[in-house]
Amino acid sequence: MTKEAKIALYTKMARIRHFEQRCIRIYQQGKIGGFLHLYVGQEAVAAGTISLLGKNDHLITGYRDHGHGLMVGMGMNECMAELTGKVTGCSQGKGGSMHYFAPDKNYWGGHGIVGGQAPLGTGLAYAVKYQGLKGSCLTFMGDGAVNQGAVHEAYNLASLWDLPVIFVVENNGYSMGTSQERSTAHPGCLAKRAEGYNMAWDVINGHDVYEVRAKTALALKRAHEESKPTVLEIFTYRYFGHSMADPDKTYREKEEIKTYRDKKDPVLLFEQELLREKVLTPELSQTINDAAMAEADKAAIFADESPDPTLADITKHIYWEEDNRGPKTTSRGTIIFE
Amino acid sequence: MAVISYREALRAAMRDELNRDKNVVIMGEEVAQFNGAYKVTEGLLKEFGPKRIVDTPISEAGFIGLGIGASMLGIRPVMELMFWSFSYVAFDQIVNNAGNIRYMSGGLINCPIVIRGPANGGTNVGATHSHTPEAILASHPGIKVVCPATPYDAKGLLKAAIRDNDPVYVMENTILYNDKGEVPDEDYIVPIGVADVKRVGTDLTIVAHGRAVITSLKAAEILEKDHGVSVEVVDLRSIRPLDEETILKSVRKTHRALLVEENKPFCGVDAQVAYLIQSKAFDELDAPVHRVSSIDAPQIYCKRMEDLQMPSVERVVAEALKVLA
To answer: Which of A11, A177, B18, B199 lies in the 20 to 30 Å Cα band around A187?
Structure first.
């Protein structure tokens, strides 16, 4: 990596951190409804993996989707406005926190049902292969998803048909409030389940963005050159509850969170590494963090001042047909929207 | 114009669209080597090869979800469900993913997928293989549902479905697969959302879809011959979008309506149609709207009883006479 690339990567991680922390304040002000699943603590996973993607590489994830969105280049404004349900949001206020999308940046969401995106990601990889392109689809999920049937069906199809999909299990230790030990029968690690499907697998320290990149690069090579799938299990940790609705008091000790924050924080560790490498200076780091904070503040104002969708907007974007009436229309019927 | 079977009409639709658009892929259990569990896809593997005609494992949530993901990137998958009853294990994919992705993305993503297969009772296979989920699925905005009753409609609706940019679920009927009818060789589509008056009449409107149309047409013959009643039969063809105007126009002419479907009555398609008629043509009615549907119980296995459970010509005639009384 060049010096510039390293600084850019650090900047992106800092932006995710400050965006998410700004979200907490807006949530506490009562401006964000529904569920808000924060990515704080897991930044190196999205940053390390997504920073490697090229033109024909796609990605899809579950509901903890903000970090991935910022990594592909979505703006803080559209992301923040989506959280407050505004028409200027990335999904025009129709998706919310769990449903960010940026297909122009190869980002296919943002999916609310645990593991439900695994077959979709496999299908995106299928489409890439069908079209004869050298690409892939990174299909992210949490450790809680690995017990869902849809994930296993996706694993089987990916391996059976040699699809260039990389299943990235972001293992933060807890599926909501249930620890991995209490949720999952596993011999050693979750990624090893790949062996049952004759798939390659690897485990990664998700607190070290260099390691995330190095091992993901091998999986991408396998996808691009052999059209073969991989399961990557990336060990990471979230500092906040499953969502903001989770008081986080019943299933883990405060001391555990503190240990991760103090000793394994991926943003802090990367900053220290770059200071050691003399890529960053304390001043530059300060500038980057100040800028990210200011950007998040501005996004909060933008989200606040943006208008709501209108009543008429409720019935838009349901059918392509309804939004694009014309000579190519094949459907003529009445859609009842009462 | 050739006379071909409903099954051949469906196959002709797929062959046409495979030839027209290289992004069309046929996928499902036993569709390729086995030539289709009900032989709808017979010969397509030989003609188009394994890239276009793809056998899947028994893994509905997996392969339907895969098709949805592929459709988001421009593939036009035509997925066969051996029975629509099997859709229930893929419900999250069919409803949550295919049905919501366009909406939740604010129109950024389209999902041009077709899922097709038989959805019918009457085949002596018990409750788990006899579901008719058109009402369940049509209750979700974002999804289109069509139920062809004739070979002509089967070909035209399936071609329209494959060209459509939204998810279209085509519900066929194994009992109709051998029915024959006139089907043009040249390119045509039956627009989704347009009902068809299958028989013109003046005294009573029967609204039906799927095989219930065939049952109703037979009943209409008897009503005319034995009772001197002129019956109009409206075939919905499409459940969602629903062609309200054709239904209302017919009811405004005959002033009496009987609704026939093979679904169970509770929350059936005809519950919606009955509401439509009373809300928009109440003053036109000379009698209450009546319904004939399957007896409200899981589908019974015993063939003799199953035939009684489902709408029969006799039941339709008897109920029609009540509306006309």
So the answer is: A177
Which pair of structure tokens corresponds to residue A287?
């500038």
User: Do the domain assignments include residue A338?
Assistant: no
Place of tokens 């998410």: A20
pLDDT tens across A85-113, in order? 999 999 999 999 999 999 999 999 999 99
For B280, the token pair is 């928009």
Q: Are A118 and A154 in contact (CB under 8 A)?
A: yes
**Which residue type is seen at A66?**
H
Provide the domain limits for residue A234. Answer: 3-310
d(CA A46, CA A30): 28
Longest dimension (CA), chain A: 66
Classify residue A161: in a domain, yes or no. yes
Q: Does B174 touch chain A (CB under 8 A)?
A: no
ipTM of the complex: 0.96
Cα–Cα distance for residue pair A153/A155, rounded to 1 Å: 5
DSSP B269-282: HHHHHHHHHHHHHG
Number of domains in chain A: 1
**Given an 8 Å threshold on Cβ–Cβ distance, is B62 in contact with A153?**
yes
**What's the residue count for chain B?**
325
Q: Nearest CA to CA, how far is B73 from chain A (Å)?
A: 6
Q: Is B63 in Cβ contact with A153 (below 8 Å)?
A: yes
Q: Look at residue A325 and tell me if it is in a domain.
A: no
Residues facing A217 on adjacent strands? none
pTM of the model: 0.96
Pairing of strands A178-179, A174-175: antiparallel
Half-sphere exposure of residue A167, counting CA atoms within 13 Å on the CB side? 40
Burial classification of residue A328, based on how many CB atoms lie within 10 Å of its CB (0-12 exposed, 13-18 middle, 19 or more buried): exposed
Ordered domains of chain B (ranges, CATH): 2-183 (3.40.50.970), 196-324 (3.40.50.920)
Q: How distant, in Å, are the alpha carbons of A257, B88, B190, B196, B235 from that of B207?
A: 64, 27, 18, 10, 6
B47 classed as catalytic: no
Angle of CA points A207, A210, A214, to nearest 5°:
120
CA distances from B21 to A247, B16, B159 (A): 53, 9, 11
Q: Does B109 touch chain A (CB under 8 A)?
A: yes
Using CA atoms, how far apart are residues A240 and B37, in angstroms rounded to an integer?
A: 51
Chain center to CA of B303: 23
Which residues of B fall within a CB distance of 8 Å from A313? none
Contacts of A7 (CB under 8 A, 6+ apart): A274, A279, A280, A284, A288
Mean pLDDT of B193-199: 97
The answer to whether position A246 is within a domain reads: yes
Our CA-based measurement puts residue B19 at a distance from the nearest CA of chain A, in whole angstroms, of 17
Is residue B224 within 8 A of residue B133, CB to CB? The reply is: no
Rounded-to-integer distance, Cα A131 and Cα A159, Å:
19
A281-289 mean pLDDT? 98
Distance (Å, rounded) from C-alpha B107 to C-alpha A50? 24
Q: Which pLDDT band holds residue B122 (cuts at 50, 70, 90)?
A: very high
Residue B16 in tokens = 């046409």
